[in-house]
């Protein structure tokens, strides 16, 4: 079997795209992904200093959020890391779970170790919401 240069380039591009998709959407080592019931229980049992972080944009946050959540949008998270102490447990959520997973990946790279996120985001949440 012989490959021409175009076939090799196509295979390399496909492999790169797959690798980038895996990095973006694949598992985050050390991240606890909790369904709504477990997330709610973990919040109730968490130490008082634990941080509940909503990484949705401000407009989404204003439409309804989990009580006591702090809003730091994913788009601003890199600039606002100083507001998130590394010695606290951090509970993340967004609308569907995608942005909170991306936020977890960023926090892990920056040295945060106690991170959990709400599987399915606030869309899966069945608890109280503050408005």
UniProtKB/TrEMBL annotation:
Residues 46-131 form the Rhodanese domain. It comes from Paenibacillus methanolicus. Keywords: Membrane, Transferase, Transmembrane, Transmembrane helix. Pfam families: Rhodanese. GO terms for molecular function: transferase activity. The chain crosses the membrane at residues 6-23. It comes from the Bacteria. InterPro entries: GlpE_sulfurtransferase, Rhodanese-like_dom, Rhodanese-like_dom_sf. This is Rhodanese-related sulfurtransferase.
């Amino acid at each position: 079997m012989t490959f021409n240069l175009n076939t090799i380039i196509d295979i390399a591009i496909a492999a790169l795209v797959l690798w980038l998709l895996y990095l973006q959407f694949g598992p985050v080592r050390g991240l606890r992904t909790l369904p709504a019931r477990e997330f709610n229980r973990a919040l109730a049992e968490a130490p008082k200093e634990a941080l509940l972080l909503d990484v949705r944009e401000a407009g989404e946050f204003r439409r309804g959020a989990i009580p006591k959540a702090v809003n730091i949008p994913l788009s601003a998270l890199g600039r606002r890391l100083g507001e998130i102490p590394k010695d606290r447990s951090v509970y993340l959520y967004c609308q569907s779970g995608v942005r909170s997973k991306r936020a977890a990946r960023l926090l892990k790279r920056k040295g945060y170790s106690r991170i959990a996120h709400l599987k399915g985001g606030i869309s899966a949440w069945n608890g109280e919401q503050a408005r």
